[in-house]
Fold this protein.
Amino acid sequence: MAYAISHDAEIKTVYEACALVDELGATSTGEVVVSRDGDPLGAVFLERGRVCWAAARGLARRLTELLVARSTLSPDQMEATFAACKAGRIPLGEHLVNRGALRGEDLRSALLQHTVESLAFLCKGGARAGFHARPGGGYSPKFTFQTAELVAHAGALSHGTEATRARAVMNAIFAPGEWAAAFARPLSSAFPEPVALYGDVPNAATTLLRFGKWAASALDVASTFTDDGALLTVSRGPRGASSALVAFRSEGIVVMGETGALGPARIMNRRAQQRRSKAHGAL
Amino acid sequence: MGIELTMKAALSSQHDAVALACMDTRSGLVLGLSLRSDVPRDDVEIAALSAAELCSAPSHSDAPDASDEPCDESFVASTNWVHAYARVPTRRDLVVVGLAPSNANIALLRAWLRKVAETVGPDA
């Protein structure tokens, strides 16, 4: 059966690949085939708008390596399991989890790592990507990814130190039920790059990046009349039932998030406590 | 009462605030500004001119071309100052900006600014 190709586009970065997936919409199921000069390089598999995994020519063994590093199986045992799953058309990762050879969160982290590495490989040097709608493969949603998570993981791989620092800041400042994201601003990039996430962030990479651009730009504006440590709070929604968007800089990282109406007061308090403990530590 | 007089009268009614301004975000003009003591006028003007950017925020829409939406209120809290912004309910293109030292009660400052914004509409 032939399936129509849609959304043919050039992709040069993981973000552009994710933006293409976002453009396909939340119901898209099928594969984005990536090629260069007509030569297929690999594919990104989608189910209901979520990325299941990405396959790149030459990187098949990398997933096995990532799984072995996290599982109780030896490389030989993993190879045998891989071959058996391939022959029986059984999803390898979920089979390993069901057998107790791998924890669910470790499978997820291996798939995330492999998908982002594959996307980076596919996009390197520029490529064409075309979407082919196909029936879904029945992937478990808990082992699939929103594009926002993929771009943040790609950012964390590029900016590891900033990502670690940002996670600590967000864990200390934000509360359950809130969401936040941290962005690095490398000179080489035209836009802030997400490096760490907290809570239920917007699903789409394009939406997350819009929030990051807003935060970076608003803090730049605020810095024309105030200091770099300023906290910006914008109330959203009707008064009394509103949420608040907050944005601030922390050692070169832009952090922004959405909180309840009382969130800004709590965040100001926690930041003041952090400043005080830093000052006392320096004495 | 003109906008300048409204700003002056409102500022005199709040002891924490040291400056008050009204910005027209559509024309880019500061319509009225009142200062207390030795606050640099330029700083307040710059804060007022930033109202359009600082009193808006992105929507949750996943549409790629979604633009920022005007918001009712915002504030910037820094080491020395609090800049608070409130949109005029009857003239959404106008934003009132209040400035107070950082040790001021932000909730009271914002509540006051909200009331000022409600009185500004007819004068602007």
Observations:
- The longest strand of chain B covers residues 91-101.
- Helices of chain B lie at 3-12, 41-49, 51-54, 106-120.
